[in-house]
Amino acid sequence: MSRSLTVLGLLVAAAGVAAADDGISVTAFDPENATAPSNGVEGDGVKVGEGTVIHPIFGVATGVVSNVFYEDRATNAAGILRLLAEVGAGSLSTSRLTPTNAAGGSEAVDQGDFQYRASLRLSYDLMLSGNDTVNEVGGLGVGATIRGLVNPMGTWSFGFDENFTRLIRAANFETDADTNRDINTLALNLIYHPTTRSIGGYLYYNNTLDIFERSDLEFADRLQHRFGIHPQWRLLPQTVVFADVSLGAYGGLGDSMKVSSYPLVAQAGFATLFTPKTSFNLHAGYTNGFYASGPSYSSVTAGAQLGYRYSPLGRAALTYDLRYEDSVNANYYRDHVVRLWLQQDFVPFSLLVQPEVHFRTYEGITIVGGPPTRDDVIFSVIAGVHYNFRNSLAVGIDYHFTAVQTDYEYMTDGAVDDPSFVRHQLLAGLRWAL
């Protein structure tokens, strides 16, 4: 792997402790994440300058969702028609920058002082139902990303990653997105990676602005800052030891009811290869929420991943994470997460399956008419089967199942509401890249 690609990997993972063996992004297979960047197709692109190429992608998908409003009973099913468009621009790839010599090999070239990637992603959902309330759930989703790296081949590099997402989703208690919501994230990184030394690392700053478009949901609007340092040491050729210390400053915006907090995370870990086919990552440490009022946490945080490449075209990974996260409708939630990740290619088919279970506890819930704590068991399966006619054209079927079981009930409009639900979403579609 080239040095610039290694640093770009650090840039993508700079929100916290970087795992050394993450694999491809599952979110691209998630039918509910329509604005995730496409990674299933990529064309040659259109060269528009000496060092820039544009990559347009178009898609259409249709399917069905079993429970539009995440209800525990009297569910509403509906069909979906989804239109997709993505355009990306960036520096020429390594393969296009590296000429072939007369002997059939390749000659490395200077990749310049600045490498970047940018993309704009649009999705439009039309709900196909005779229920007008269901039809109002659809709309325009937006994703926009720009990431870059200054001085990628030098000892010191500066990276940035800016991402904006407009999420369109019906409301439920707390998920990756509920109702129309605008989320902007920014990551800045100062990276030290000398070629002659085994010690490196980076300083980072992360910012998240999370705003609900409906005025009656502005009580959950949030602004988050996080500063951190991530030194690492290549102890052996295939083993990296690292530490990560960060401090956040979280709070609400305007009339938000969010309680201010200053979350601290201090942890260390390592990533290694047991064998050429078996990888293992482990990190553990201490975290404290330092919430200004209400419940807070002071606890261990930990995570581990065991990966195994059982064939040249197949890989599996099992992960466990214990983490504490700031919550939309509470001070925070604690998550025990067990996840299995499986990818198998049967060229030209590609299969991905990811089952996972969360044992989640919310503390400091702000909903009026309900208790301040909540315990959930969340089971989810994401699966995708894609067929690539060629690199630029693919069809696929994507499925997402979610089941939430909770002991929590609260009063709304004079009735008791149980936020448990079961939801299936199935989409079949096509993507074409120029």
Walkthrough of the structure:
The chain has 434 residues and is mainly beta. The chain has a single domain (3-433), classed as Beta Barrel (Porin), CATH 2.40.160. It has three helices and 21 strands. The strands form two sheets. It has an 18-stranded antiparallel barrel. The protein is globular. The two termini are 26 Å apart.
Q: Can you tag this structure with a few keywords?
A:
single chain; 434 residues; mainly beta; Porin; 18-stranded antiparallel barrel; 21 strands
CATH class: Mainly Beta
Mean pLDDT across residues: 85
Kindly report how far apart the N and C termini lie: 26 Å
Uncertain spans, ≥5 residues at pLDDT below 50?
A: 1-25, 94-102, 173-178
Strand content: over 45%
Architecture blueprint of SSEs:
Layout (H helix, E strand, L loop, with lengths): L2 H10 L33 E2 L4 E14 L12 E14 L2 H4 L16 E15 L3 H4 L3 E12 L5 E12 L13 E12 L6 E14 L9 E15 L2 E14 L11 E12 L2 E11 L9 E14 L2 E13 L5 E15 L2 E15 L9 E18 L2 E14 L3 E3 L2 E3 L3 E13 L1
Could you give a short description of this structure?
The chain is mainly beta and 434 residues long. The chain has three helices and 21 strands. The chain has an 18-stranded antiparallel barrel. The protein has a two-stranded antiparallel ribbon with strand order 19-20.
